[in-house]
Amino acid sequence: MSDQTLFSIFFSAMIVNNFTLAMFLGLCPFMGVSARVETALRMGLANIFVLVLTSLSAWFLNTFVLESFPFLRIISFIIVVASLVQIVEMVVKKLSPTLFRQLGIFLPLMTTNCAIFGLAIFQTNRGYGFLQGIVFAVGAGLGLTLALVLMASIRESIEFSDVPGIAKGTGLVLIIAGTLSLAFMGFAGML
Amino acid sequence: MRKTTPSQDFIRGIWKENPVLIQMLGLCPALAVTNTVKNALAMSAATFFVICCSSVLVSSCKRFIPNEVRISAYILVIATFVTLADMMLQAYAPVQHKELGAFIALIVVNCMILGRQEAFSAKNNVFRSLLDAVGTGIGFTIALVMMGGFREILGTGSFLEYSLFGPNFEPWVVMVLPAGGFLTLGFILLAMGYFEQRRKPAKTEKAEQAA
Predict the structure, then answer these.
(1) Is B200 helix (H, G, I), strand (E, B) or coil?
(2) Do B75 and A172 touch (CB under 8 A)?
(3) A111 neighbourhood in chain B, CB within 8 Å
(4) B80 and A75 in contact by Cβ < 8 A?
């Protein structure tokens, strides 16, 4: 059990060690669905939901199952993540077909979203308990959403500016991400 | 699907369809562990092992995998080999294992590996899948070592921990920080875009008129 306070876990996951900008997790949706603010926001919310569920399941597996089979950790985590994403996909399809279409391929791709799998692994490595895990997941999810929304708003306003031909596309997005990451580094000494 | 020769299968992944620089797959490890060349090499070696073994296994078992559950089956195969790679690194290179930390486990969710299984190994024989996997693995290694090289040379003034510029060099600390990863890849892509534009001026103009 880690002895970090809940607040420091939350703040560290959300701002200081932001999953996308400081640890490079979840880059696929960061590049893919960050063109519109609204879609980015919804993608972020879907991510928070899956992250919390993953954290719960990872805690359950760690406490009751994996103690005697530590070598099965990677395999069992990926199965849990894959089935969770499947469930979320079905729920979203039922509740909001519009959102389902907007997110498109990035919803099933959440299975191979490093952020979700990474959360389970980091939580295990740092030995977070039940409550710490949930707080970590919410913090990480909010951090992802923050990064996505920031990126989307920058890209929305850059759409109308005259960008040189070679910089169109991913190159520019990466350099903006680098600048954002530099900005987030300002928080580094806080905890 | 277009027919390709075995040598094309091999060469394609190295540069023309480089997984990181052209297809933008597997970005997470490419940015996260390339702060030194040594880490980049360890990561590439682990990924290389996983992609080759999974390609061979998937292409030899493709007849027994039902179409509906193929993605889950591929992920299970990949997860098995990642577990193996994780344990081997822990046993033979504990220092590197500690340095790379959770990112070894994260090879499971590297889209590049799953992508090759779905796009190639599931449809081709063992030999050609192996060639394809080796080519893609080499392409991945090239991209990672290139990024690791830039970041280590500028960020610490050394290459593979061998000092290059002497004691008077002021290191660009930003390059070994997370931001440096984004910036390095961004500038590499810009440079590639520049050369592409110079090579095909006519084609780019057409594309711009269409856009």
Answers:
(1) coil
(2) no
(3) 71, 75, 109
(4) yes
Chain-centroid distance of CA A136 in Å reads: 11
Any long-range contacts for B77-80 (C-beta under 8 Å, 24+ apart)? B77/B117, B78/B50, B78/B54, B78/B107, B78/B108, B78/B113, B78/B114, B78/B117, B79/A74, B79/A75, B79/A78, B79/B108, B80/A75
Question: Are the C-beta atoms of residues A101 and A12 closer than 8 Å to each other?
Answer: no
Helices vs strands, H then E, count in chain B:
10, 2
SS3 at position B163:
strand
> pTM for the complete prediction?
0.86
Residues of B in contact with A73 (CB under 8 A): 83, 105
Sequence-distant (≥ 6) Cβ neighbours of residue A146 within 8 angstroms: A14, A18, A44
Per-residue pLDDT for chain B (211 aa), expressed as one digit of tens each? 456 788 888 888 787 888 888 887 878 888 888 888 988 999 999 999 999 999 999 999 888 888 878 888 898 999 999 999 999 999 998 988 888 888 888 888 888 888 888 888 888 889 999 999 999 999 999 999 999 998 988 888 888 777 877 777 888 888 888 888 899 999 998 888 888 878 776 555 555 555 4
Q: Cα separation of A174 and A191, whole Å? A: 27
- Judged by CB atoms within 8 Å, which residues 48-107 of B form the interface with A? 71-72, 75-76, 79-80, 82-83, 86-87, 101-102, 105-106
